[in-house]
Amino acid sequence: MFQGSIVWKGIVYSILMTLGKGLVSVIIYFDYFIKWSTSRKPNPPRRTAPTTTRVDPQPTQQTMSKRPPHAIALLVGFAMISRGEIGFLIASLSQSSGTLTLRQRNGSGTISSGEEIFLVIVWAVVICTIAGPIGVGIIVRRLRKADNAARYVGWI
Asked: For the whole prediction, is pTM greater than 0.85?
């Protein structure tokens, strides 16, 4: 498990897993920019009865969250990165069924054994499972500090 080739492949694979799982946070930006772009469009005047008050259903800058979207997006991304325990189950089932063995195209021999591939997967899942909660903890701590500072200043 601690051979150099297995460790560096596991690290590279965990980086790819982190990027793939972190792309989930892009959806938060799409949602924020859609709300932001619709709040900037002027609404056409509506005819209402003189006794009723006008309630505008479109969000405005004042009603939108004051928190920047990247903090929430990072929180969602790191939370997804830490979800890797199912990877252990899938890797062990694949190893026990013999599907982790890679063969050359001509079928003359194996490139990598199932044991080596299993250990690379284990390294990647362990790194992601450890790094994800650390990232979530750092972001939550910073958001909590920002909320406390905003309360003292009177922003919220």
From this structure: no
